[in-house]
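Protein modeling request. Please complete all fields; requests missing the sequence field cannot be processed.
Requester role: graduate student
Desired output: 3D structure, token encoding
Chains: 1
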Amino acid sequence: MVSKISTLRIRLPGDLRYLQLLKGGPMSTPLRKMRTRSLVAKLQYGSKRLVSRLRAESPRTTTFESCPTTLPKLLTQALLIEARAITLETETRRASVAVRNVSDAPIVLFPSIHRLPESQATSIMVMPLMAELRAGEATRIDYILVAGHADTEQLFRARFAWLESSRSADCQEAEASIPLLVRPSELRSLDDPQHALSASLTPHGDVIIQNEGEHLVFVSPIIALLPSNRTFVIAQRYIAPRSWQLCREVDPEARSLAIRVTAERICGTPTFTVDIPLQTSSPPDPYRTLY
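Delivered output (291 residues):
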């Protein structure tokens, strides 16, 4: 009597029937008279080796999470930037910021500069280009104005990317950035540069917000139409000097009288609101500087 019969079916070439091999039991097919003992022995021996090998080896799992999209909390908070914004005066041509590794593992830091489209008149060099920080270690990153002269404020982003430098660390990377403002020495700091803003409304319902001053104006991206209090969103949180932002079809009926703008500091903290009257205007020509 066979207790547990494990069945192995093999398809024979040229034959539609199956050869049923019973492990530990007799042959139960019409082909039992065939001399298949050598084949049965080979199959049983191979299956036993395979089972014993699988049991002896530790289970393996193949995953694709060596570089996860959600970074661990310890890595994202490993770097402490001891400033919320950097101001670089053209007279001194140098500014610095302190950074510290507040994690328990060493990290490698890669500081860099991100140039915004409106800031093409100046060039900034970062030193050092790479720094290895042990747990609890701090260093200073220097920003040097190397070329160019601008008569208006220029905005950059000081970017920091870091990863763990230990051998057991995965290929995970975290990053952060803070604003870097380049201010000409002849310009003094203003507490209310929002007064240099003007706004106009086209017959098609487009709102044009223009900065006629030499200072950057930081505003909340949510702008309110008055008196309806309907809101719309602008593309960025600042308006560069001597530039404008075009917001298309935000007031289809073209009946608004003013817009309400919330002023912000360079680090994003809101300060106060300003109501700017809307003037009647035609859409700006984006090609007017080419001809």
